[in-house]
Structure formats: structure tokens, C-alpha cells
């Protein structure tokens, strides 16, 4: 793959890229829900993705991407991150890579340009799948703004004002 030189460049700079990304996410008004999360946990997650980018692009299968990003979507839903903010953070993650590559790498030849275009295609395919599976995980978890999440919010409100009995939590039902 011609773009591997660029992937390795990203992997070598994964720590700095992840710190910059976390700052960008935490400072954006479009991702304000992330301010309630641990910056260190966010940095570790971004660094893991950036550091293993070649593996994600070339070795991971569709089920690998599905499993990982459905879990991330479910975790962000449980943390109270609204879906639109979660999706914006994923798009920032992708865009941050491209800003870095534009800053650090410059195609001098048609072969290098072809490598950049090849990497662009792979990154877009990867992030399209990541976003799709993250939304599935988010919806399955019933995050804020999803129909299941709204039903849960309404049930909690009805319970709080005495219109409905408190419902058992799923973990409590399994213990019985």
C-alpha cells in the first residue's frame, strides 16, 4: 500500500495527535458533553486508534470494527453524551488526521499523491463504518435522544412524580 508511509507517520505521532484532538473536542461547543468525561480516558482512546491505525485499516475486519465501535457508542450513550455530539467527535477524529497530514506530508510525485488518495479512501471507508456501528451501539444502549432513551427518560419522570411504580433495573431482574 502506497499510503503506509503516511499511516506510519500518524502512528509515530499518535500521542501528540491524541492530546491535540482531546483539546479540540473538549473546547468545541459542538462537543460540550465531552467536558464531563475524563480527558485522560479520551486521550488514551484516541491514542490507541491513532497508534494502531495501520492495523485498523488493513487487518481489522468488518466484525472487528462493528464490535469495537458498537461498544464505544454504548459507552458514550451511558455517559450521557448526546448522539449529535458523539458523531461530531468522530468526525473531528477523522478530520484531525487530515489536518495533520496536510501540515506534515506533501506529495512531491504522482506516486506519493496516489498514496495519499489511497489512504484518504481507506480512512473514509473506516470512519464511515465506525460511525455506522457506533450509532448502532448508541441506539441499542438507549442513549439520550434515541427513542429508547426518551422512553426511559419519560418513565423516570413518571416514577419521580408518582404516576408510575419504580421499575426494576435489568441487573436486579437477573438476580431474582
Provide a concise account of the structure shown.
With 176 residues, this protein is mostly helical.
Number of helices: 9
Percentage of helical residues?
over 70%
Low-confidence stretches: 170-176
* Total strand segments: 0
Distance between the termini: 55 Å
Order of helices and strands: HHHHHHHHH
Q: What is the arithmetic mean of pLDDT?
A: 82
Strand content: under 5%
Largest sheet: none
Question: Which term fits the overall shape?
Answer: elongated
Q: Which structural class is indicated by helix and strand composition?
A: mainly alpha
CA radius of gyration: 19 Å
Description:
The chain has 176 residues and is an all-alpha fold. The protein is built from nine helices and no strands. The longest helix is centred in the last third of the chain and has 32 residues, at 110-141. The protein is elongated and about 70 Å long.
Features:
0% strand, mainly alpha, disordered C terminus, 176 residues
Topology:
Blueprint (H helix, E strand, L loop, with lengths): L3 H9 L1 H14 L11 H13 L1 H6 L3 H17 L4 H22 L5 H32 L5 H14 L9 H6 L1
Helix pairs in contact: 2-3, 2-6, 5-7, 6-7
